[in-house]
Amino acid sequence: MPEQKIPATVITGFLGAGKTTLIRYLLQNAGGRKIALIINEFGDLGVDGGILTGCGIETCREDDVVELNNGCICCTVADDFIPTMTKLLERDRRPDHIIIETSGLALPQPLVAAFNWPEVKTRVTVDGVITVIDAAAVAAGRFADDEAKVAAQRAADTSLDHDNPLEELFEDQIRAADLIVLNKADLIDRDTLEKVRQETAAATARTVKTITAENGRLPADVLLGLAAGTETRIAERKSHHEQEHEAGEAHDHDEFESFVAAAGPIADPARFVAGLKALIGEHDILRLKGFADVPGKAMRLVVQAVGQRIETYFDRPWAAGETRQTRLVVIGLHDGLDAAARVAIEARIAGLASGSDSVEAAE
Ligand SMILES: Nc1nc2c(ncn2[C@@H]2O[C@H](COP(=O)(O)OP(=O)(O)OP(=O)(O)O)[C@@H](O)[C@H]2O)c(=O)[nH]1
């Protein structure tokens, strides 16, 4: 049986935006996922590894945290990142998910490109790039809470081979994002937050979704794609249709909504994916993830989408006695996924699966 690919999430954003805080919360609420962390930081400026390893979180063992402190990760990809990933993948204890926290100076694109290196490509899939933004700093006309510290980090990194102005770096980090987190929402009022949201959206041409957070407190299901633990839950969960006349599930995070959309076999996977892309663009869908039944294929098709990034691959044969089915978990903001939207989305997914609805992807 082929080894299932391990999803990797890149978490980027300026120094002090709240990346470590978000990761810490994520580890504490990982839903049983075994997470390995790669943290990129420098000398005495870096304390994140210590914060995370010393945190006493059960799911995060000391040797699951790897620190890369030879310079900015995007400038040391070949020397540092690839060997580290390879070592991580050769461990006996395979992680369910890999999280990479970049330094505040990192350009995410070279890092994402590194996932195409042969050593990594066959074993890891990019789950998504999450860009954390200090909304309060941006509202105040800055990119980071402490721009002097960012400058100090830059000065301390002798291997840094890009010297973009802060504004350009900020735009690059936003452009690379599959999901943007406007963090530190507690420090500004709603109107200001909305202004920051618009400003951020203007910096990206794509239909990237933006969510807000206080102290990075966001559910793992929103931040991360499928993992071993979620797999069984999808099969067990009732579809939206089955749930329609029942009380909704209890939520820890009221601002988010999720449901399972069930559909029939996929007539044409490429058109299905193109249609899903369009659907995500049209609705407030943050994530779509699950499995699909492709007739004629012995293997199950994994579908993972965050923003406009959609990954599909066959991960394992359907087991004997297992029902071949298409089930996608749809996650979005509560306000955007009301009952009518859920009915419409489920119907569209069913139509896309059967080929009766052949929406082309929005460019
Ligand atoms: N008020 C407020 N403070 C926050 C929030 N998120 C993080 N902080 C604080 O902001 C500071 C920086 O947070 P970190 O999580 O270390 O930020 P980071 O992006 O990991 O920073 P580096 O790793 O240094 O690049 C810490 O003092 C956090 O406690 C938030 O949502 N609201």
From TrEMBL:
Keyword Chaperone annotated: yes
Q: What does this protein do?
A: Zinc chaperone that directly transfers zinc cofactor to target proteins, thereby activating them. Zinc is transferred from the CXCC motif in the GTPase domain to the zinc binding site in target proteins in a process requiring GTP hydrolysis.
Q: Which family does it belong to?
A: Belongs to the SIMIBI class G3E GTPase family. ZNG1 subfamily.
Q: What one GO molecular function would you report for this record? A: hydrolase activity
Gene Ontology CC entries for this record: cytoplasm
Catalysed reaction(s) here are:
GTP + H2O = GDP + phosphate + H(+)
Key words, A-Z: Chaperone, Hydrolase, Nucleotide-binding
Question: Where does the secretion signal sit in this chain?
Answer: none
- Gene that this polypeptide is encoded by: cobW
Tell whether DNA-binding is among the UniProt keywords: no
- A Pfam family annotated for this UniProt entry: cobW
- Read off the InterPro entries from this record: CobW, CobW-likC_sf, CobW-like_C, CobW/HypB/UreG_nucleotide-bd, P-loop_NTPase, Zinc-reg_GTPase_activator
What organism is recorded for this protein? Jiella flava
Biological process according to GO: cobalamin biosynthetic process
Domain called CobW C-terminal: residue spans: 256-340
CobW/HypB/UreG nucleotide-binding domain: which residues?
A: 7-203
User: What is the protein name stated in its UniProt record?
Assistant: Cobalamin biosynthesis protein CobW
Q: What is the lineage of its organism?
A: Bacteria, Pseudomonadati, Pseudomonadota, Alphaproteobacteria, Hyphomicrobiales
